[in-house]
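Here is a typical protein record:
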Amino acid sequence: KVKGGSIDVHPTEKALVVNYELEATILGEMGDPMLGERKECQKVIRVKGLHENSDLSTLAKEVIEKCKLIHPSKLPEVEQLLYYLKNRKETTVSKVVTHVMGAKTKLSDKPEDPAFIDGTEVNEVANINDVDEYLEMLYDDLPDKIKGCALLLQLARNPDNLEELFQNETVVSALVRLLKEEWKNSTDLAINIIYIFFCFSSFSSFHAVILHFKIGTLCMTIIQHELKKHDLWQDELNKKKKAAEVDKNKSKTQDDYDKSLKKYEGLVRKQEQLLR
């Protein structure tokens, strides 16, 4: 028995990912069910014919006709996902990481735990019974928002807490709202919230809600923004480096370059956490 589930876009390819549940039942001699097993599966549908001038309505119908796992009632959703795929820039995760890591600055080989870097560090052990308290922090000033998200991240990193956290609609909605409104204002905040949803995404039962809130689309927007920021940082650093090289009295310009380099390294390290 096959039961259809949520549909999402593939993170790097022009393809749709269909989640479904496969249920197998072993019958006894009398035909009675004796043993049943359920398995969560995924099917990747590559949309090779998708291009700038594609008729998305027709293409969506073709996808549904070829994949019986997708119910015809999901035609508008498939069409919307195809529209996103068509307009998504050709940026794979590997290209993103290579682009950011391509700087000559030496970075750590292994990213630090996002819960314990710079502004996200908290000297407190989170407790699942204090979720309401952490939720209130999400409505306070930015430092409290960062702390509240860091504590929620501690909880989310324990799979035993995920179900209870996810069933708290107020917490999930607040995290989504915060990510949409504040990601440009605080990299620490964005790191924590994205990592929380990454923890949720490890289990397919949470995929439908993640898709509903368009977390994947928002993450791609954040990545593109961060790449532009990285280019600006690098251009500015190169200008100061050239200025230091041509200046005969290098003391001041060299100091300026050294300070900028140190700042650049810190920014890239934090960006590495966000894009990993």
Q: What stands out?
A: Residues 91-120 have pLDDT under 50 and may be disordered. Strands lie at 2-9, 15-27, 33-46. Residues 215-246 form the longest helix (32 residues). The radius of gyration is 23 Å.
